[in-house]
Amino acid sequence: MPDGGHDVCGNCFHFQCDEPFDRQNPEAWRCSLRGVSIDADPYWTTCDNCAEETSEPSGPMRAVVGGMGKKGVPTYRRLPYLNGRRPEIVGSGGGNEVIRVETGEGTAKDFGSVDEYLGFQEEHEQQWASS
C-alpha cells in the first residue's frame, strides 16, 4: 500500500494546506470539515468522509498505522483516534502489536492488541465530530 491508501486526508478535498504542500510544515495541515489540524502525515490519516461532499462529519478520524505481522509481513490498521489523539503502533512482532495513545497531559496507555485498544476507545471516546 503506497502511503496509507487512496482514501486519505492528503487526497481529500476537505484537506487544506499551504501551497505548495510541505511535508515539513504540519502546522499548516487542516481538515475543513472537522475544523481540526491534521497532526500526522495526511497520507497516513483518514476518516469515513474522505472525498465525500458533506457538511457533517461522521465517525472518528483514523490513523493508518503499520506493524509487522506473522513471518515479517507488514500489516496496516486503521485505528480511530481517541478524543483527538492519534494512536500509534510502537512495537510489533509475530502478530503481537503494542498500540500506544496519549490519554491525557503527557500520559500514555499501551494496549496489547487492536481489540483491546478498540474496546477502550469505544468506552472513552467523547465526541466523534471533533476527534
Features:
8% helix; 3-stranded antiparallel β-sheet; 131 residues; 1 helix; 30% strand; mainly beta
The run of helices and strands is EEEEEEEEEH
Low-pLDDT stretches are none
Q: What is the gyration radius calculated from CA atoms?
A: 15 Å
Mean pLDDT, rounded to whole units?
A: 83
**Main sheet, how many strands, which sense, barrel?**
3 strands, antiparallel
Count the helices. How many? Answer: 1
Biggest sheet, spatial arrangement of strands:
1-2-3
**Number of beta-strand segments:** 9
Please bin the fraction of helical residues.
Answer: under 10%
User: Strand pairing plus helix content: what structural class?
Assistant: mainly beta
In terms of DSSP E residues, the strand content is: 25-35%
Q: What sort of overall outline do the alpha carbons produce when their principal axes are compared?
A: globular
- Terminal Cα separation, in Å? 25 Å
Question: Can you give a write-up of this model?
Answer:
The protein is 8% helix and 30% strand. It is mostly beta strands. A three-stranded antiparallel beta sheet has the order 1-2-3, with no helix packed on it. It is globular, with a radius of gyration of 15 Å.
Can you lay out the helices and strands and say which pair or pack?
Layout: E1 15-16, E2 30-31, E3 36-37, E4 45-46, E5 62-68, E6 74-80, E7 88-93, E8 96-102, E9 108-111, H1 114-124
Antiparallel strand pairs: 1-2, 2-3, 4-5, 5-6, 7-8, 8-9
